[in-house]
Amino acid sequence: xxxxxxxxxxxxxxxxxxxxxxxxxxxxxxxxYAMCCAGCDYCVMEVSSHALALKRVAGIEYDxxxxxxxxxxxxxxxxxxxxxxxAKSLLFEHLTxxxxxxxxxxxxxxxxxxxxxxxxxxxxVLTYGEGHDNDIYPLSFTVEPKHxxxxxxxxxxxxxxxxxxxxxxxxxxxxxxxxxxxxxxxxKDIICSVLDGFDGVPGRFQLVEAGQPYTVIVxxxxxxxxxxxxxxxxxxxxxxxxxxxxxxxxxRDNKKRPxxxxxxLELADNIVVTSDNPRTEDPELIIDEIxxxxxxxxxxxxxxxxxxxxxxxxxxxxxxxxxxxxxxxGKGHENYQILKDRTIHFDDKEVVMEYWSDKKC
Length: 361
Hints:
Elements: E1 2-4, E2 8-11, E3 14-17, H1 25-37, E4 43-45, H2 49-53, E5 64-67, H3 75-78, H4 81-93, E6 104-108, H5 112-118, E7 124-128, E8 137-143, E9 148-153, E10 159-163, H6 168-183, H7 188-197, E11 206-207, E12 215-219, H8 224-236, E13 242-246, H9 256-267, E14 270-273, H10 283-291, E15 302-305, H11 309-319, E16 325-329, E17 336-338, E18 343-345, H12 348-358
Parallel strand pairs: 1-4, 5-6, 6-7, 12-16, 13-14, 13-16, 14-15
Antiparallel strand pairs: 1-2, 2-3, 8-9, 9-10, 11-12, 17-18
Helix pairs in contact: 8-9, 9-10, 11-12
């Protein structure tokens, strides 16, 4: 299996860094050719809205497409949510183009866009979601800090899973994955075995263990929906206070900044606003826009602004109590920070490990 996504490109054991979620059209075709030469039977790829709008995936004939959800992001490019949804829809509208038979589309029916885009595809449809009218739905699930039990109804019978990933949002991810594997006629026992052995994705609700007395989670959440989901999941495993350290990227959709500030204030106890990838913007001005939603802080909550991301992370690490949970959001797997005049090495996980290795910043 070959993989093309936001984090990296994988061809067997060869891993290369991704520069775009979906490469430009020439690099993409070279990558697919390399997968063929390496004997890959499958390619699993993230297809971004930019790639669809800019025709980077023109000429590719997909067998199966999965829609997880569509939430506010990339409006600096698409301008409106309708344009963003329409760009995503192109994948499903053209899914039956070409000569291959039995194309399949898998939809999360708890996302409002699915009902709209479902009407635009001629492919076979598999659905998942909370409702029992879906092909795949949860019968029960139990979320623990470091694992999750999940019992699912599927078209091939119940699947009882003991997963090494956690969080309600991962219930949806697992259902989407099962939909894709069932569309490819993969055996039920293989599906269960593979999912039970899966231990997560770097930077996606990743637990960082550095010998600290509290829980530290690093996550890529950089949109309102993403931040809300991971904060709700973190809250469900928090016995003490919930901390969130986050910022917003520069030269990107600025409309989401106050929205993310409001979500942080609603769902966390201690909020530390810092820099993400400020790019050409002044980090303090980005933080100012986030702070428009942080004016009326309820009693018992605390808000801090520290534009230096290392300083912000270390502040939370120094102040947290034993039963607290610290969520460091926005960069996830990234090991760099893009500043106005340069790109520097920066890894949220490394900052945590370094802090606990020498107890100082």
